TrEMBL record:
It catalyses: a primary alcohol + NADP(+) = an aldehyde + NADPH + H(+). The keyword Hydrolase does not apply. This is alcohol dehydrogenase (NADP(+)). Keywords: Metal-binding, Oxidoreductase, Zinc. Transmembrane segments: none annotated. It comes from Kitasatospora nipponensis. CDD domains: CAD1 (cd05283). It holds the Pfam family ADH_N. Its EC number is 1.1.1.2. Belongs to the zinc-containing alcohol dehydrogenase family. The keyword Zinc applies.
């Protein structure tokens, strides 16, 4: 395959609506695979980056890092995949491969120049990366994962970002039988956190702003739901949890949430607010509590997550849309009007 143009949806400038265009995908190198994209999830971070909320972006920008599809061609040195295989690509498409973190399978924390993000980044040849709102993607075979047959491609797509974002901290901090876990926020991230924590055997509580999502939380596997808009919640649940995973992007009263932890409990931040959060040292030292963060997972752990989800029948709760609805979907995400992830049918691009 030589360099080729394919259809995509891109934002031409910051805050611009996404429009149909054509982009160029590189010629297959020895270890590259060509993926015919079937579905691409819409992540809240796509909106942040299109809007320039996290700093200057690279435009035109093709978002999308929740990619599920089929291998349609392979380079001459490929050994991991064959034409027709079901594959996924998440938040990064390369890393230095030699630093301590890369060797340990934690490429997301690459210290040799950082991971190469699937879009809005510059690859190691100096070219901008373009994401999954497209019909095809070329990626090194070492940065793709296998989607098990038990997972439909549409519900699997959001697992490549939202799923691994929750699976990694839940596994790292030992969610399982005998552990009490709270998930803050029941959205695109949080609903998968509930499913995964439940499947791991933990006692799961959802903390949401209002009681509105209680029925969904219980349906998805939560043992309890509490509204954080009610001050009594923080009195009732004081000192209860071993682990709290915060999925929301709003600035929270950290001291109040740290008060919900048991001695030696951990509060893990995975949502990224646009303003700093302040914490009193006393809220940490009283009970030897930990405040931590977590960002996606490496390739090996992402594969582990997909296999776990296949085994336990876990997929994202989705609304499949046509590409022409992307801008409408962005507006609905900002209005919290989705239960719980939009997925683009790439056949409509």
């Amino acid at each position: 395959m030589t360099d080729t143009t394919v259809a995509a949806y891109a934002a031409a400038t910051p805050k611009a609506p996404l429009e149909k265009t054509v982009i160029t995908r590189r010629e297959l190198r020895a270890h590259d695979i060509l993926i015919e994209i079937k579905y691409s999830g819409i992540c809240h971070s796509d909106i942040h980056q299109v809007n320039g909320d996290w700093g200057d972006g690279i435009f035109p920008m093709v978002p999308g890092h929740e990619i599920a599809g089929l291998v349609s061609a392979v380079g001459p040195g490929v050994t991991r995949y064959a034409v027709g295989d079901r594959v996924g690509v998440g938040c990064f498409v390369d890393s230095c491969r030699t630093c301590e973190n890369c060797v340990a399978g934690q490429e997301q924390y690459c210290t040799g120049g950082g991971m190469t993000a699937t879009y809005n980044a510059t690859d190691r040849d100096g070219e901008p990366t373009l994401g999954g709102y497209s019909t095809h993607l070329v990626v090194d075979e070492n940065y793709a994962v296998t989607i098990p047959e038990a997972l439909a491609l549409d519900v699997a797509a959001p697992l490549l970002c939202a799923g691994i974002t929750l699976y990694s901290p839940l596994r790292h901090w030992g969610a399982g039988p005998g552990k009490r876990v709270a998930v803050v926020g029941l959205g695109g991230l949080g609903h998968l956190g509930v499913k995964i924590a439940h499947a791991l055997g933990a006692e799961v509580t959802v903390l949401g702003r209002t009681p509105a999502k209680r029925p969904d939380a219980l349906r998805l596997g939560a043992d309890a739901y509490h509204a954080t808009g009610d001050p009594a919640t923080f009195e009732q649940l004081a000192g209860r949890f071993d682990l709290i995973v915060n999925t929301v992007s709003a600035t929270l009263d950290l001291e109040a949430y740290l008060g919900l932890l048991r001695t030696d409990g951990t509060f893990v931040q995975v949502g990224i607010p646009d303003q700093p959060m302040v914490v009193s040292p006393f809220a940490l030292v009283n009970g030897r509590k930990a405040l931590a963060g977590s960002m996606i997972g490496g390739i090996r752990e992402t594969q582990e997550m997909l296999d776990f989800c296949a085994e336990h029948g876990i997929g994202s709760e989705i609304e499949v849309i046509a590409a022409r609805q992307i801008n409408e979907a962005y507006a609905r995400v900002l209005a919290s009007d989705v239960r719980y992830r939009f997925v683009i049918d790439a056949a409509t691009i």
